[in-house]
Structures are given as C-alpha cells and as structure tokens.
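Please decode residue identities from the backbone states below.
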C-alpha cells in the first residue's frame, strides 16, 4: 500500500512508538528554480531519519492553503513543521506557530533566504534536512507591525518600493533584485518619517527605514550586523539617500557585514516603535510587498516562536 500526498507516492511505513510525524510543506511558487523545487521532495525522503520521523509532504497551493495545513497539523499534535521556501513562505508558516510548542524548520528554497542565512541553515537541501534530524531548537522573537507579523525584516520607503517592483517582475534572483535597485535609485525622493522609539521622538529624512529582527534582507546583504532574533529587540535601521558615487562603498559595507560602521547608517535597538508616514503606504514584510496604514506600530514579541537551528 502507499500513502499519497499531493501526487507524491512513497511506500507505507508504520511509525514505531518512538517515531513522530513530521510535516514538510513545499512552496512551488518560491524563488528557487523549477528544477531545484522538483528535487526537494526526493532529497527530503532520502535524508530524513526514518528511525525518528514519519514524514508527510505537501505542496502548497497558496497562503490560505498553508494556513489550513498548519492549523490542522498543530491541532492534530504534530510538533515539527518544515517549510521549503523563502522568507515569505517562512512567514506564512511561522505566523501560525507563534505561541505553540510546534517547532518551525526551514529548508531554504527562496531567492534571498534572509532568516535562514542569519540562522546559518545551509541552502543544500540534504544538509538542511540533517539539521532537522537533530532537532535542536531555539526560541526567537516575532515582531508585530500593526496587525501583521514578521520574523526577519520589514521595511518602508525605498525598501518597500524595491519589494513591490521585484514582485511585479515575476523573475526571482539577485540579478533581478539588483536591476530594480539600480533603475529606481536616482529617481526616488527620500521621505520624512516621524518616529517614536521606546518613547523618544525623532524625525528623519531617509531613503528607507528597515526594522531588523534578523541581520539581513537576504543574499547576505546585511543591514544590521548586531541584530539578533532572540534578544527581545528590533533594530531600527535608518539610511539616508547618499550620492550615487558613494553607493558602491556603502554596498561593500553591507555585503562585508560592516554597514554599522558607516557614518550614513543609524541603528537603534528598540522594543516598541511608532512611525508616522506622510506619503507611501507600502511596506516590505519578509520580502513580500503589501499596503498598511500610514501610521505604524512595531512591537516585539519576545521568545514567541520555536525554530530548529544548527
């Protein structure tokens, strides 16, 4: 006999008393190549420790489907849910696991993979599954921004514009991301933001403001080298628009993990932030673009998500 999950067929295997169900969700619309995504399930089944786990594999058909799968899994007592996807896919799963004892595992299969890179989870599927086999866990923070939640990075201003244009391209990868940044930089007008950071008011004219729970946007583009997802803080990263000729140096610092040494970048650790925007309403939320109100409230939820780490 065989179990069938979303067209995946593998031999029936009855779990021993010591074995636990583990749920894998593969997002077909993540940023990785079709060829790579087609190999993920096979690598999972080849590498998962069958003496510990009885795996189920699902291919998601969208955000609502992922929520349904996660809700049913948590209610049925499954203690480990793995997402194969990028930061947006991680967000879709993780938001359903906040405050539960179900652990999130990540197989990086997106384009940027910011949270996975910060946690040092390898992009090689088999190596990532070997980490899942060991199931070492860590509690990390989640961060609310109005009625939404993020786990890696949220951003406003130019960051949000890039996320929106990048999504419209329909083509993932660093080169596509870079093209959007270059094509939009010169014409973008910085905005003035009124911020209240843990009760302290300040106004800044900025290219973008990023709220960092992890250290990077993805692609190892590190916006806040000292950010830690388990320290109870979100790093408020304020970056002005600088002359075009100076942007390569700032980019070198970003990819060299030293942007906090730049005189142009201001980073403030905070637990609670209020933002008043006067123009755009778009935000970048874990790599996905969406609209919120102009006034934002950012609040850290300490130690609210259990994550599998190396």
């Amino acid at each position: 006999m065989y179990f069938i999950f979303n067209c995946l067929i593998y031999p029936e295997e009855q779990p021993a008393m010591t074995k636990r169900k583990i749920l894998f969700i593969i997002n077909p619309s993540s940023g990785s190549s079709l060829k790579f995504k087609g190999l993920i399930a096979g690598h999972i089944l080849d590498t998962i420790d069958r003496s510990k786990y009885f795996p189920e594999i699902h291919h998601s058909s969208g955000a609502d489907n992922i929520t349904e799968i996660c809700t049913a899994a948590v209610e049925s007592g499954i203690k480990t849910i793995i997402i194969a996807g990028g930061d947006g896919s991680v967000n879709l799963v993780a938001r359903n696991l906040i405050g539960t004892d179900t652990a999130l595992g990540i197989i990086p299969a997106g384009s940027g993979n910011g949270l996975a890179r910060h946690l040092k989870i390898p992009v090689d599927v088999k190596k990532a599954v070997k980490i899942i086999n060991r199931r070492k866990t860590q509690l990390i923070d989640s961060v609310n921004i109005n009625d939404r939640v993020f786990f890696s990075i949220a951003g406003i201003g130019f960051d949000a514009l890039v996320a929106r244009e990048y999504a419209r391209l329909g083509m993932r990868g660093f080169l596509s991301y870079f093209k959007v940044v270059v094509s939009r930089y010169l014409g973008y007008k910085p905005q003035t933001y009124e911020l209240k950071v843990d009760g302290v008011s300040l106004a800044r004219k900025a290219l973008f403001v990023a709220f960092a729970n992890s250290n990077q946007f993805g692609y190892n583009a590190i916006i806040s080298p000292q950010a830690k997802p388990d320290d109870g803080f979100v790093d408020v990263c304020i970056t002005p628009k600088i002359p075009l000729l100076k942007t390569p140096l700032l980019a070198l610092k970003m990819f060299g993990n030293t942007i906090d040494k730049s005189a142009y970048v201001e980073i403030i650790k905070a637990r609670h932030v209020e933002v008043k925007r006067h123009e755009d309403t778009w935000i970048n939320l874990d790599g996905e673009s969406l609209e919120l109100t102009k006034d934002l409230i950012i609040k850290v939820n300490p130690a609210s998500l259990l994550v599998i780490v190396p």
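Observation: The mean pLDDT is 90.
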